[in-house]
Amino acid sequence: MTAGVRGPAVLVAGGSLVGLCTALFLARRGVATLLVERHPGTAVHPRTPGYNARSMELFRAAGVERAVRQAGPWQLDGSGLLVAATLTSEQVRWLEPPAMRGPTDDFSGLTPAEPAVLSQDLLEPVLRRHAEAAGAVLRFGTMLESFHDDGDRVTAVLRDLETGATREATVDYLVAADGADSAIRARLGIGRDGPGVLDHQAGITVRADLSAVRHRFAVGKIDNPEVSAMVRIVGDRLTINVGYRPGDGESIDRFTPDRCVALARVVVGIPSLAVTPLGVSAWQPSAAVARRFSAGRVFLAGDAAHVMPPSGAFGANTGIQDAYNLAWKLALVLDGSAPPRLLDSYHTERRPVAEMTVGQALHRGRAWFGEPYPVSGAMLDDVTVMFGYRYGPGPVTEDPGAPSGEPGTRLPHAWVTRGGQRMSTVDLWAAGAVLLTGPGGAPWRDTVPAGVEVAELGPDDWDRVGDGGTGAMLIRPDGFIAWRSESSPRDTAVRDAVAGMLAGNTDKEIFR
Ligand SMILES: Cc1cc2nc3c(=O)[nH]c(=O)nc-3n(C[C@H](O)[C@H](O)[C@H](O)COP(=O)(O)OP(=O)(O)OC[C@H]3O[C@@H](n4cnc5c(N)ncnc54)[C@H](O)[C@@H]3O)c2cc1C
Protein backbone atom coordinates (compact mmCIF):
# COMPACT_ATOMS: atom_id res chain seq x y z
CA MET A 1 0.00 0.00 0.00
CA THR A 2 1.34 3.43 -0.85
CA ALA A 3 1.20 6.06 1.87
CA GLY A 4 -1.68 8.47 1.71
CA VAL A 5 -1.17 12.18 1.24
CA ARG A 6 -3.48 14.84 2.57
CA GLY A 7 -5.27 15.73 -0.62
CA PRO A 8 -8.90 16.19 -1.43
CA ALA A 9 -11.40 17.54 1.04
CA VAL A 10 -14.22 15.25 -0.07
CA LEU A 11 -14.15 11.68 -1.33
CA VAL A 12 -17.17 10.55 -3.33
CA ALA A 13 -17.59 6.77 -3.46
CA GLY A 14 -19.56 5.76 -6.56
CA GLY A 15 -19.33 7.47 -9.92
CA SER A 16 -22.69 6.87 -11.50
CA LEU A 17 -25.30 9.57 -11.86
CA VAL A 18 -25.45 10.83 -8.27
CA GLY A 19 -21.73 10.52 -7.57
CA LEU A 20 -20.90 12.42 -10.76
CA CYS A 21 -23.42 15.15 -9.88
CA THR A 22 -21.94 15.43 -6.37
CA ALA A 23 -18.43 15.77 -7.79
CA LEU A 24 -19.58 18.37 -10.31
CA PHE A 25 -21.54 20.45 -7.78
CA LEU A 26 -18.66 20.32 -5.26
CA ALA A 27 -15.92 21.11 -7.76
CA ARG A 28 -17.84 24.09 -9.12
CA ARG A 29 -17.86 25.50 -5.61
CA GLY A 30 -14.10 25.07 -5.40
CA VAL A 31 -14.06 21.97 -3.21
CA ALA A 32 -11.09 19.63 -3.84
CA THR A 33 -12.93 16.44 -4.73
CA LEU A 34 -11.84 12.88 -5.47
CA LEU A 35 -14.37 10.42 -6.90
CA VAL A 36 -13.83 6.68 -7.17
CA GLU A 37 -15.93 4.33 -9.27
CA ARG A 38 -15.28 0.62 -9.53
CA HIS A 39 -16.48 0.36 -13.13
CA PRO A 40 -13.94 1.27 -15.82
CA GLY A 41 -16.12 4.09 -17.20
CA THR A 42 -19.47 5.81 -17.11
CA ALA A 43 -22.79 3.95 -17.59
CA VAL A 44 -23.08 1.74 -20.65
CA HIS A 45 -26.77 0.96 -20.13
CA PRO A 46 -29.41 3.58 -20.97
CA ARG A 47 -31.07 3.34 -17.48
CA THR A 48 -32.81 6.54 -16.33
CA PRO A 49 -34.43 8.30 -19.28
CA GLY A 50 -35.75 11.45 -17.65
CA TYR A 51 -34.57 14.47 -15.68
CA ASN A 52 -37.36 16.59 -14.33
CA ALA A 53 -37.54 20.35 -14.51
CA ARG A 54 -36.25 20.83 -10.94
CA SER A 55 -33.17 18.73 -11.73
CA MET A 56 -32.70 20.77 -14.90
CA GLU A 57 -32.81 23.95 -12.77
CA LEU A 58 -29.92 22.54 -10.76
CA PHE A 59 -28.02 21.64 -13.93
CA ARG A 60 -28.71 25.20 -15.09
CA ALA A 61 -27.26 26.59 -11.85
CA ALA A 62 -24.22 24.33 -12.32
CA GLY A 63 -23.71 25.69 -15.84
CA VAL A 64 -24.39 22.41 -17.66
CA GLU A 65 -28.02 22.76 -18.73
CA ARG A 66 -27.14 23.50 -22.34
CA ALA A 67 -24.54 20.71 -22.53
CA VAL A 68 -27.09 18.25 -21.14
CA ARG A 69 -29.65 19.31 -23.75
CA GLN A 70 -27.08 18.98 -26.51
CA ALA A 71 -26.17 15.44 -25.47
CA GLY A 72 -28.89 13.94 -27.61
CA PRO A 73 -32.28 14.19 -26.00
CA TRP A 74 -35.07 12.14 -27.48
CA GLN A 75 -37.91 13.64 -29.46
CA LEU A 76 -41.16 12.01 -28.40
CA ASP A 77 -44.42 11.52 -30.30
CA GLY A 78 -46.51 11.87 -27.17
CA SER A 79 -46.30 12.30 -23.46
CA GLY A 80 -46.92 9.48 -21.05
CA LEU A 81 -46.48 5.81 -21.73
CA LEU A 82 -46.83 4.21 -25.16
CA VAL A 83 -49.08 1.14 -24.87
CA ALA A 84 -49.22 -1.39 -27.71
CA ALA A 85 -49.33 -5.10 -28.51
CA THR A 86 -45.96 -4.86 -30.24
CA LEU A 87 -43.59 -2.05 -31.16
CA THR A 88 -44.63 -2.28 -34.82
CA SER A 89 -48.40 -2.37 -34.14
CA GLU A 90 -50.45 0.16 -36.03
CA GLN A 91 -52.68 0.60 -32.98
CA VAL A 92 -51.03 2.34 -30.05
CA ARG A 93 -52.33 4.49 -27.26
CA TRP A 94 -50.70 6.92 -24.88
CA LEU A 95 -51.35 6.40 -21.21
CA GLU A 96 -50.91 9.64 -19.32
CA PRO A 97 -49.38 9.62 -15.85
CA PRO A 98 -52.08 9.57 -13.20
CA ALA A 99 -50.93 12.72 -11.48
CA MET A 100 -50.42 15.30 -14.20
CA ARG A 101 -52.25 18.59 -13.97
CA GLY A 102 -52.70 18.76 -17.71
CA PRO A 103 -51.87 16.37 -20.52
CA THR A 104 -48.36 17.69 -20.91
CA ASP A 105 -47.77 19.67 -17.73
CA ASP A 106 -46.53 22.97 -19.09
CA PHE A 107 -43.81 24.09 -16.70
CA SER A 108 -43.12 27.46 -18.29
CA GLY A 109 -44.87 29.40 -15.53
CA LEU A 110 -42.94 27.55 -12.84
CA THR A 111 -39.39 27.33 -14.11
CA PRO A 112 -37.14 28.49 -16.93
CA ALA A 113 -35.84 24.92 -17.26
CA GLU A 114 -37.72 22.33 -19.30
CA PRO A 115 -37.41 18.66 -18.36
CA ALA A 116 -35.02 16.60 -20.50
CA VAL A 117 -35.57 13.12 -21.88
CA LEU A 118 -32.11 11.68 -22.28
CA SER A 119 -30.63 8.30 -21.47
CA GLN A 120 -28.16 8.04 -18.62
CA ASP A 121 -25.34 6.66 -20.78
CA LEU A 122 -25.40 9.95 -22.74
CA LEU A 123 -25.78 12.18 -19.68
CA GLU A 124 -22.97 10.72 -17.59
CA PRO A 125 -20.10 11.64 -19.98
CA VAL A 126 -21.35 15.26 -19.89
CA LEU A 127 -21.29 15.29 -16.09
CA ARG A 128 -17.88 13.61 -16.09
CA ARG A 129 -16.39 16.13 -18.53
CA HIS A 130 -17.70 19.13 -16.63
CA ALA A 131 -16.74 17.75 -13.21
CA GLU A 132 -13.18 17.19 -14.45
CA ALA A 133 -13.07 20.62 -16.08
CA ALA A 134 -14.12 22.14 -12.75
CA GLY A 135 -11.19 20.40 -11.06
CA ALA A 136 -12.61 17.17 -9.62
CA VAL A 137 -10.34 14.15 -9.87
CA LEU A 138 -12.28 11.09 -11.07
CA ARG A 139 -10.74 7.63 -10.75
CA PHE A 140 -12.61 4.93 -12.63
CA GLY A 141 -11.67 1.27 -12.11
CA THR A 142 -11.07 2.15 -8.47
CA MET A 143 -12.95 0.80 -5.51
CA LEU A 144 -13.36 2.10 -2.00
CA GLU A 145 -12.52 -0.98 0.05
CA SER A 146 -12.84 0.31 3.59
CA PHE A 147 -12.92 3.55 5.54
CA HIS A 148 -12.44 4.84 9.04
CA ASP A 149 -13.98 8.01 10.46
CA ASP A 150 -11.93 9.12 13.45
CA GLY A 151 -14.13 12.13 14.14
CA ASP A 152 -11.65 14.59 12.61
CA ARG A 153 -10.97 12.98 9.24
CA VAL A 154 -12.02 10.02 7.16
CA THR A 155 -9.33 7.65 5.95
CA ALA A 156 -10.29 5.37 3.07
CA VAL A 157 -8.48 2.47 1.45
CA LEU A 158 -8.82 2.62 -2.34
CA ARG A 159 -7.95 -0.24 -4.67
CA ASP A 160 -6.98 0.16 -8.31
CA LEU A 161 -8.85 -2.77 -9.83
CA GLU A 162 -6.51 -3.08 -12.79
CA THR A 163 -3.22 -3.25 -10.91
CA GLY A 164 -4.55 -4.41 -7.55
CA ALA A 165 -2.54 -1.65 -5.83
CA THR A 166 -4.10 0.04 -2.82
CA ARG A 167 -3.58 3.47 -1.38
CA GLU A 168 -5.00 5.52 1.43
CA ALA A 169 -6.85 8.78 0.99
CA THR A 170 -7.46 11.02 3.96
CA VAL A 171 -10.30 13.47 3.54
CA ASP A 172 -12.58 15.72 5.55
CA TYR A 173 -15.81 14.10 4.39
CA LEU A 174 -16.98 10.99 2.55
CA VAL A 175 -20.08 10.95 0.34
CA ALA A 176 -21.55 7.49 -0.22
CA ALA A 177 -23.08 7.51 -3.69
CA ASP A 178 -22.56 3.77 -3.92
CA GLY A 179 -26.10 2.80 -4.86
CA ALA A 180 -29.00 0.86 -3.42
CA ASP A 181 -26.84 -1.90 -1.90
CA SER A 182 -24.49 0.68 -0.37
CA ALA A 183 -21.72 -1.14 1.49
CA ILE A 184 -20.93 2.15 3.22
CA ARG A 185 -24.48 2.38 4.59
CA ALA A 186 -24.20 -1.22 5.80
CA ARG A 187 -20.81 -0.59 7.39
CA LEU A 188 -22.29 2.40 9.26
CA GLY A 189 -25.09 0.14 10.50
CA ILE A 190 -27.79 2.44 9.09
CA GLY A 191 -31.05 0.54 8.63
CA ARG A 192 -33.87 1.44 6.26
CA ASP A 193 -37.62 1.95 6.62
CA GLY A 194 -40.20 1.00 4.01
CA PRO A 195 -41.70 -2.03 2.33
CA GLY A 196 -38.37 -3.07 0.71
CA VAL A 197 -38.30 -5.30 -2.39
CA LEU A 198 -41.57 -5.00 -4.35
CA ASP A 199 -40.93 -7.17 -7.38
CA HIS A 200 -38.26 -9.04 -9.37
CA GLN A 201 -37.42 -7.86 -12.86
CA ALA A 202 -35.09 -9.06 -15.58
CA GLY A 203 -33.63 -6.18 -17.58
CA ILE A 204 -32.74 -7.57 -21.00
CA THR A 205 -30.72 -5.51 -23.48
CA VAL A 206 -30.42 -6.51 -27.14
CA ARG A 207 -29.16 -4.91 -30.34
CA ALA A 208 -31.37 -5.08 -33.43
CA ASP A 209 -32.42 -3.16 -36.52
CA LEU A 210 -35.30 -1.18 -35.03
CA SER A 211 -36.01 0.99 -38.07
CA ALA A 212 -39.48 -0.59 -38.44
CA VAL A 213 -40.47 0.97 -35.09
CA ARG A 214 -42.17 4.21 -36.04
CA HIS A 215 -43.15 5.50 -32.60
CA ARG A 216 -40.87 7.70 -30.54
CA PHE A 217 -41.42 7.22 -26.82
CA ALA A 218 -39.54 7.34 -23.51
CA VAL A 219 -41.08 4.21 -22.02
CA GLY A 220 -43.40 1.71 -23.70
CA LYS A 221 -45.63 -0.98 -22.29
CA ILE A 222 -45.92 -4.02 -24.54
CA ASP A 223 -48.81 -6.31 -23.73
CA ASN A 224 -49.72 -9.38 -25.77
CA PRO A 225 -50.53 -13.01 -24.94
CA GLU A 226 -46.82 -13.92 -24.95
CA VAL A 227 -45.23 -11.07 -23.03
CA SER A 228 -45.97 -8.14 -20.75
CA ALA A 229 -42.95 -5.84 -20.58
CA MET A 230 -41.79 -2.26 -20.10
CA VAL A 231 -39.46 -1.34 -22.95
CA ARG A 232 -37.15 1.43 -24.06
CA ILE A 233 -35.19 2.10 -27.22
CA VAL A 234 -31.91 3.99 -27.48
CA GLY A 235 -30.49 3.93 -30.99
CA ASP A 236 -30.31 0.28 -32.05
CA ARG A 237 -30.57 -0.99 -28.47
CA LEU A 238 -33.79 -2.29 -27.00
CA THR A 239 -34.23 -2.76 -23.26
CA ILE A 240 -36.98 -5.11 -22.14
CA ASN A 241 -38.00 -5.34 -18.50
CA VAL A 242 -40.03 -8.40 -17.61
CA GLY A 243 -41.10 -9.61 -14.19
CA TYR A 244 -40.31 -13.07 -12.83
CA ARG A 245 -41.13 -14.90 -9.60
CA PRO A 246 -38.18 -16.45 -7.75
CA GLY A 247 -40.69 -17.89 -5.24
CA ASP A 248 -42.25 -19.99 -8.02
CA GLY A 249 -38.94 -21.48 -9.07
CA GLU A 250 -38.22 -18.86 -11.77
CA SER A 251 -34.72 -17.47 -11.85
CA ILE A 252 -32.71 -14.89 -13.76
CA ASP A 253 -30.63 -17.75 -15.26
CA ARG A 254 -33.66 -18.82 -17.27
CA PHE A 255 -33.29 -15.71 -19.42
CA THR A 256 -30.87 -17.46 -21.76
CA PRO A 257 -29.61 -15.69 -24.91
CA ASP A 258 -32.10 -17.73 -27.01
CA ARG A 259 -35.01 -16.73 -24.80
CA CYS A 260 -33.93 -13.06 -24.92
CA VAL A 261 -33.85 -13.18 -28.74
CA ALA A 262 -37.32 -14.75 -28.79
CA LEU A 263 -38.69 -12.14 -26.36
CA ALA A 264 -37.22 -9.30 -28.41
CA ARG A 265 -38.89 -10.63 -31.58
CA VAL A 266 -42.25 -10.83 -29.80
CA VAL A 267 -41.84 -7.33 -28.38
CA VAL A 268 -40.91 -5.81 -31.74
CA GLY A 269 -43.49 -7.92 -33.59
CA ILE A 270 -41.11 -9.22 -36.30
CA PRO A 271 -40.60 -13.01 -35.97
CA SER A 272 -37.54 -13.06 -38.26
CA LEU A 273 -35.78 -10.04 -36.72
CA ALA A 274 -31.99 -10.42 -36.38
CA VAL A 275 -31.23 -9.83 -32.70
CA THR A 276 -27.94 -9.76 -30.81
CA PRO A 277 -28.42 -10.32 -27.08
CA LEU A 278 -26.20 -7.94 -25.08
CA GLY A 279 -26.95 -8.83 -21.49
CA VAL A 280 -29.44 -9.56 -18.75
CA SER A 281 -29.44 -8.04 -15.30
CA ALA A 282 -31.69 -8.76 -12.35
CA TRP A 283 -33.12 -5.77 -10.54
CA GLN A 284 -35.72 -5.33 -7.87
CA PRO A 285 -38.06 -2.36 -7.78
CA SER A 286 -37.90 -1.47 -4.09
CA ALA A 287 -39.07 1.19 -1.68
CA ALA A 288 -36.89 2.04 1.31
CA VAL A 289 -35.42 5.11 3.00
CA ALA A 290 -32.27 5.06 5.14
CA ARG A 291 -32.97 5.95 8.76
CA ARG A 292 -30.14 8.44 8.75
CA PHE A 293 -28.66 10.26 5.77
CA SER A 294 -25.40 10.89 7.62
CA ALA A 295 -23.23 9.48 10.36
CA GLY A 296 -20.26 11.48 11.58
CA ARG A 297 -18.36 12.66 8.52
CA VAL A 298 -20.12 10.34 6.08
CA PHE A 299 -23.20 11.29 4.02
CA LEU A 300 -25.49 9.05 1.97
CA ALA A 301 -26.80 10.36 -1.35
CA GLY A 302 -28.97 8.94 -4.14
CA ASP A 303 -29.98 5.29 -4.08
CA ALA A 304 -27.68 4.72 -1.10
CA ALA A 305 -30.12 6.89 0.86
CA HIS A 306 -33.43 5.96 -0.79
CA VAL A 307 -34.83 3.60 -3.37
CA MET A 308 -38.19 3.78 -5.08
CA PRO A 309 -39.91 2.03 -7.98
CA PRO A 310 -39.49 3.74 -11.39
CA SER A 311 -43.20 4.74 -11.50
CA GLY A 312 -43.05 8.53 -11.41
CA ALA A 313 -39.44 8.70 -12.61
CA PHE A 314 -38.33 10.28 -9.34
CA GLY A 315 -35.37 8.10 -8.26
CA ALA A 316 -32.46 9.71 -10.05
CA ASN A 317 -34.00 13.16 -9.70
CA THR A 318 -34.23 12.83 -5.94
CA GLY A 319 -30.55 11.83 -5.92
CA ILE A 320 -29.53 14.83 -8.04
CA GLN A 321 -31.37 17.06 -5.56
CA ASP A 322 -29.62 15.38 -2.61
CA ALA A 323 -26.28 16.06 -4.27
CA TYR A 324 -27.05 19.76 -4.73
CA ASN A 325 -28.32 20.19 -1.16
CA LEU A 326 -25.20 18.54 0.24
CA ALA A 327 -22.64 20.20 -2.03
CA TRP A 328 -23.31 23.83 -1.11
CA LYS A 329 -23.33 22.96 2.58
CA LEU A 330 -20.04 21.04 2.41
CA ALA A 331 -18.47 23.89 0.44
CA LEU A 332 -19.43 26.53 3.02
CA VAL A 333 -18.34 24.39 5.96
CA LEU A 334 -15.04 23.51 4.31
CA ASP A 335 -14.17 27.12 3.52
CA GLY A 336 -14.98 28.13 7.09
CA SER A 337 -18.02 30.26 6.23
CA ALA A 338 -20.45 27.98 8.06
CA PRO A 339 -20.23 25.92 11.23
CA PRO A 340 -20.22 22.10 10.82
CA ARG A 341 -23.74 21.89 12.24
CA LEU A 342 -25.03 23.18 8.89
CA LEU A 343 -24.34 19.64 7.69
CA ASP A 344 -26.91 18.20 10.14
CA SER A 345 -29.59 19.87 8.05
CA TYR A 346 -28.77 17.55 5.13
CA HIS A 347 -30.47 14.69 6.98
CA THR A 348 -33.28 16.76 8.49
CA GLU A 349 -34.13 18.34 5.13
CA ARG A 350 -33.63 15.55 2.65
CA ARG A 351 -34.99 12.55 4.54
CA PRO A 352 -38.61 13.77 4.80
CA VAL A 353 -38.52 14.76 1.12
CA ALA A 354 -37.21 11.31 0.17
CA GLU A 355 -39.89 9.64 2.28
CA MET A 356 -42.61 11.72 0.64
CA THR A 357 -41.21 10.99 -2.83
CA VAL A 358 -40.97 7.23 -2.24
CA GLY A 359 -44.63 7.30 -1.12
CA GLN A 360 -45.58 9.15 -4.30
CA ALA A 361 -43.72 6.63 -6.50
CA LEU A 362 -45.70 3.83 -4.80
CA HIS A 363 -48.96 5.69 -5.43
CA ARG A 364 -48.10 5.99 -9.12
CA GLY A 365 -47.18 2.31 -9.39
CA ARG A 366 -50.62 1.45 -8.08
CA ALA A 367 -52.65 4.02 -10.01
CA TRP A 368 -50.74 3.79 -13.29
CA PHE A 369 -49.71 0.14 -13.55
CA GLY A 370 -52.12 -1.55 -11.14
CA GLU A 371 -49.27 -2.80 -8.96
CA PRO A 372 -50.32 -3.94 -5.49
CA TYR A 373 -47.94 -1.47 -3.82
CA PRO A 374 -48.71 -0.33 -0.27
CA VAL A 375 -49.78 3.34 -0.19
CA SER A 376 -50.82 5.83 2.42
CA GLY A 377 -52.02 9.41 2.33
CA ALA A 378 -53.04 11.17 -0.85
CA MET A 379 -51.45 11.06 -4.29
CA LEU A 380 -49.96 14.49 -5.02
CA ASP A 381 -49.64 15.83 -8.54
CA ASP A 382 -46.25 15.66 -10.26
CA VAL A 383 -45.69 19.40 -10.16
CA THR A 384 -46.05 19.41 -6.38
CA VAL A 385 -43.63 16.50 -5.98
CA MET A 386 -41.06 18.24 -8.21
CA PHE A 387 -41.30 21.84 -7.07
CA GLY A 388 -43.44 21.88 -3.96
CA TYR A 389 -41.20 20.08 -1.46
CA ARG A 390 -40.22 22.24 1.46
CA TYR A 391 -37.74 22.16 4.29
CA GLY A 392 -38.08 22.91 7.97
CA PRO A 393 -41.11 22.60 10.21
CA GLY A 394 -44.59 22.31 8.77
CA PRO A 395 -45.88 20.24 5.87
CA VAL A 396 -43.40 18.52 3.53
CA THR A 397 -45.05 19.99 0.42
CA GLU A 398 -47.03 22.97 -0.75
CA ASP A 399 -48.72 23.77 -4.05
CA PRO A 400 -46.04 25.50 -6.16
CA GLY A 401 -48.86 27.12 -8.14
CA ALA A 402 -49.82 29.04 -4.99
CA PRO A 403 -46.47 29.44 -3.24
CA SER A 404 -46.53 30.61 0.38
CA GLY A 405 -43.18 32.40 0.07
CA GLU A 406 -42.34 31.11 3.53
CA PRO A 407 -38.82 30.29 4.65
CA GLY A 408 -38.11 26.68 3.74
CA THR A 409 -39.92 26.90 0.39
CA ARG A 410 -38.44 27.27 -3.08
CA LEU A 411 -38.16 30.82 -4.40
CA PRO A 412 -40.73 30.76 -7.21
CA HIS A 413 -39.53 31.38 -10.74
CA ALA A 414 -40.29 34.80 -12.21
CA TRP A 415 -38.67 36.73 -15.04
CA VAL A 416 -36.85 39.77 -13.66
CA THR A 417 -34.39 42.35 -14.94
CA ARG A 418 -31.03 42.69 -13.24
CA GLY A 419 -28.22 44.90 -14.46
CA GLY A 420 -30.24 45.48 -17.63
CA GLN A 421 -30.42 41.71 -18.28
CA ARG A 422 -33.59 39.67 -18.32
CA MET A 423 -33.22 36.54 -16.23
CA SER A 424 -35.13 34.10 -14.10
CA THR A 425 -35.09 34.32 -10.33
CA VAL A 426 -33.57 30.82 -10.65
CA ASP A 427 -30.48 32.50 -12.14
CA LEU A 428 -30.10 34.81 -9.15
CA TRP A 429 -28.92 32.15 -6.67
CA ALA A 430 -26.72 30.04 -8.96
CA ALA A 431 -23.53 31.68 -7.67
CA GLY A 432 -24.45 31.55 -3.99
CA ALA A 433 -26.69 33.05 -1.32
CA VAL A 434 -28.38 36.28 -2.34
CA LEU A 435 -30.42 38.93 -0.53
CA LEU A 436 -33.30 40.15 -2.69
CA THR A 437 -34.66 43.62 -2.08
CA GLY A 438 -36.89 46.07 -3.83
CA PRO A 439 -35.88 49.44 -5.21
CA GLY A 440 -34.10 51.56 -2.66
CA GLY A 441 -32.59 48.47 -1.09
CA ALA A 442 -29.30 50.26 -0.46
CA PRO A 443 -29.79 50.37 3.31
CA TRP A 444 -29.94 46.56 3.29
CA ARG A 445 -26.60 46.45 1.51
CA ASP A 446 -24.81 47.86 4.55
CA THR A 447 -26.18 45.10 6.76
CA VAL A 448 -25.15 42.15 4.61
CA PRO A 449 -22.14 40.07 5.69
CA ALA A 450 -19.44 38.98 3.23
CA GLY A 451 -20.34 36.08 0.98
CA VAL A 452 -23.92 37.17 0.36
CA GLU A 453 -24.75 39.17 -2.75
CA VAL A 454 -27.52 41.75 -2.85
CA ALA A 455 -29.88 41.84 -5.83
CA GLU A 456 -32.01 44.96 -5.98
CA LEU A 457 -35.07 44.37 -8.15
CA GLY A 458 -37.13 46.98 -9.94
CA PRO A 459 -40.58 47.90 -8.56
CA ASP A 460 -42.64 45.60 -10.81
CA ASP A 461 -40.29 42.68 -10.35
CA TRP A 462 -40.21 43.17 -6.59
CA ASP A 463 -44.01 43.34 -6.47
CA ARG A 464 -44.15 39.89 -8.05
CA VAL A 465 -41.17 38.28 -6.27
CA GLY A 466 -41.19 39.92 -2.86
CA ASP A 467 -43.81 41.79 -0.93
CA GLY A 468 -43.43 45.04 -2.83
CA GLY A 469 -42.43 46.84 0.35
CA THR A 470 -39.20 47.78 2.05
CA GLY A 471 -38.44 44.22 3.17
CA ALA A 472 -35.95 41.66 1.89
CA MET A 473 -35.60 37.92 1.27
CA LEU A 474 -32.53 35.82 1.90
CA ILE A 475 -32.19 33.04 -0.70
CA ARG A 476 -29.93 30.04 -0.09
CA PRO A 477 -27.51 28.74 -2.73
CA ASP A 478 -30.12 26.11 -3.71
CA GLY A 479 -32.88 28.63 -4.34
CA PHE A 480 -34.77 28.03 -1.09
CA ILE A 481 -35.94 30.97 0.98
CA ALA A 482 -33.95 31.07 4.23
CA TRP A 483 -35.52 34.18 5.72
CA ARG A 484 -37.71 37.12 4.85
CA SER A 485 -38.46 40.39 6.47
CA GLU A 486 -41.40 42.59 5.72
CA SER A 487 -39.96 45.60 7.51
CA SER A 488 -37.09 47.99 6.78
CA PRO A 489 -33.52 47.04 7.54
CA ARG A 490 -32.39 46.66 11.08
CA ASP A 491 -28.71 46.47 11.86
CA THR A 492 -28.46 42.88 12.97
CA ALA A 493 -31.41 41.29 11.20
CA VAL A 494 -29.59 40.12 8.08
CA ARG A 495 -26.49 39.11 9.98
CA ASP A 496 -28.64 36.97 12.28
CA ALA A 497 -30.53 35.57 9.30
CA VAL A 498 -27.33 34.63 7.47
CA ALA A 499 -25.97 33.05 10.64
CA GLY A 500 -29.23 31.12 10.94
CA MET A 501 -29.03 29.96 7.33
CA LEU A 502 -25.45 28.83 7.85
CA ALA A 503 -26.51 26.94 10.96
CA GLY A 504 -29.03 25.06 8.85
CA ASN A 505 -32.18 26.74 10.08
CA THR A 506 -35.24 27.06 7.95
CA ASP A 507 -37.51 27.77 10.86
CA LYS A 508 -39.70 30.71 9.99
CA GLU A 509 -40.32 31.49 13.67
CA ILE A 510 -36.62 32.21 14.07
CA PHE A 511 -36.33 34.36 10.98
CA ARG A 512 -39.49 36.37 10.82
C1 LIG B 1 -35.49 0.41 -15.08
C2 LIG B 1 -35.26 1.67 -14.29
C3 LIG B 1 -35.81 2.86 -14.74
C4 LIG B 1 -35.60 4.03 -14.01
N1 LIG B 1 -36.16 5.19 -14.47
C5 LIG B 1 -35.95 6.33 -13.79
C6 LIG B 1 -36.48 7.58 -14.28
O1 LIG B 1 -37.14 7.65 -15.32
N2 LIG B 1 -36.23 8.71 -13.57
C7 LIG B 1 -35.51 8.67 -12.41
O2 LIG B 1 -35.34 9.75 -11.80
N3 LIG B 1 -34.98 7.52 -11.93
C8 LIG B 1 -35.17 6.35 -12.59
N4 LIG B 1 -34.63 5.20 -12.12
C9 LIG B 1 -33.82 5.22 -10.89
C10 LIG B 1 -32.38 5.62 -11.16
O3 LIG B 1 -31.81 4.79 -12.15
C11 LIG B 1 -31.55 5.53 -9.88
O4 LIG B 1 -32.23 6.19 -8.83
C12 LIG B 1 -30.21 6.22 -10.06
O5 LIG B 1 -29.51 5.71 -11.16
C13 LIG B 1 -29.36 6.03 -8.82
O6 LIG B 1 -28.10 6.57 -9.03
P1 LIG B 1 -26.96 6.42 -7.95
O7 LIG B 1 -25.78 7.10 -8.56
O8 LIG B 1 -27.45 6.86 -6.62
O9 LIG B 1 -26.72 4.84 -7.79
P2 LIG B 1 -26.16 3.80 -8.84
O10 LIG B 1 -26.56 4.16 -10.20
O11 LIG B 1 -26.50 2.46 -8.32
O12 LIG B 1 -24.59 4.01 -8.78
C14 LIG B 1 -23.79 3.57 -7.73
C15 LIG B 1 -22.39 3.45 -8.27
O13 LIG B 1 -21.49 3.20 -7.19
C16 LIG B 1 -20.51 2.30 -7.64
N5 LIG B 1 -19.95 1.67 -6.43
C17 LIG B 1 -20.61 0.93 -5.52
N6 LIG B 1 -19.77 0.59 -4.51
C18 LIG B 1 -18.57 1.14 -4.81
C19 LIG B 1 -17.32 1.14 -4.14
N7 LIG B 1 -17.13 0.52 -2.96
N8 LIG B 1 -16.28 1.79 -4.70
C20 LIG B 1 -16.45 2.42 -5.90
N9 LIG B 1 -17.63 2.46 -6.58
C21 LIG B 1 -18.68 1.83 -6.02
C22 LIG B 1 -21.25 1.35 -8.54
O14 LIG B 1 -20.37 0.69 -9.42
C23 LIG B 1 -22.22 2.29 -9.25
O15 LIG B 1 -21.70 2.78 -10.46
C24 LIG B 1 -34.83 4.01 -12.81
C25 LIG B 1 -34.26 2.82 -12.38
C26 LIG B 1 -34.46 1.66 -13.10
C27 LIG B 1 -33.84 0.38 -12.59
From TrEMBL:
MF (Gene Ontology): FAD binding; oxidoreductase activity, acting on paired donors, with incorporation or reduction of molecular oxygen, NAD(P)H as one donor, and incorporation of one atom of oxygen
Boundaries of every FAD-binding domain copy: 9-358
SUPFAM superfamilies registered for this protein in UniProt: FAD/NAD(P)-binding domain (SSF51905)
Required cofactor(s): FAD
Coiled-coil ranges from the UniProt annotation: none
Pfam families for this protein: FAD_binding_3, Rng_hyd_C
Keyword check for ATP-binding: no
Alphabetic keyword roster: FAD, Flavoprotein
Domain of life: Bacteria
This protein's name: Putative polyketide hydroxylase
Lineage: Bacteria, Bacillati, Actinomycetota, Actinomycetes, Pseudonocardiales
